[in-house]
Amino acid sequence: MRRVPILLVLLLTACGVPAEDSPHPVELPRAPLNGSGAAAVTPAGEVAHVLCLVRDERLVQSVRRAPSYPGVQQQMNELITGPTPAESSTGLSTALAGLTVTATAGPGSRVTVEVSRAEGRKDDILAYGQMVCTLTARPDVAAVSFTREGRSLEVPRADGTLTEGPLRSSDYAALVAPA
């Protein structure tokens, strides 16, 4: 009967990781843990950022890599330029063609986007959804407001209702394609 507790104590103490006297750096694997082992190598110093593009009347997140994190205006310029050839080959496009926008970081975590007048557009909801979802995917942006000629602009949410208030990605969640 005494052998069981002794054996249990030996097993429990033999399974542990020995303690160390001081902290030390730990090198983590850079490749995915659940892959074929032939993972793409990401050059050191690259960062990933999200652009929301359009496919089949839905918003689709596309991840791009850059040497440094782009500013809010640079991300808007990328949206207006549209998809890369590789993104286009998967059916992605932009609803922002022909718009001129100026994005400015405001107080707190809000960005204000000044939008030019674009007549006869039928994809306003997707265009505003692209801008809001792209900007709020950034860690430093929580909400986006829109202006035209310096005045608050009413813009449509995914459900078609208009608002002058700050918008979040949740306002366009119904338009986001499943991952």
From TrEMBL:
Which SMART domains has this protein been placed in? Answer: Germane
Pfam families attached to this UniProt entry? Germane
Which InterPro entries does the annotation name? GerMN (IPR019606)
The residue ranges of the GerMN domain are 72-157
The signal peptide annotation in the UniProt record is 1-19
- Keywords (A to Z) from UniProt: Signal
Q: What is this protein called?
A: Sporulation and spore germination
Query: Which species is the source of this protein?
Result: Paractinoplanes atraurantiacus
Q: What is the lineage of its organism?
A: Bacteria, Bacillati, Actinomycetota, Actinomycetes, Micromonosporales
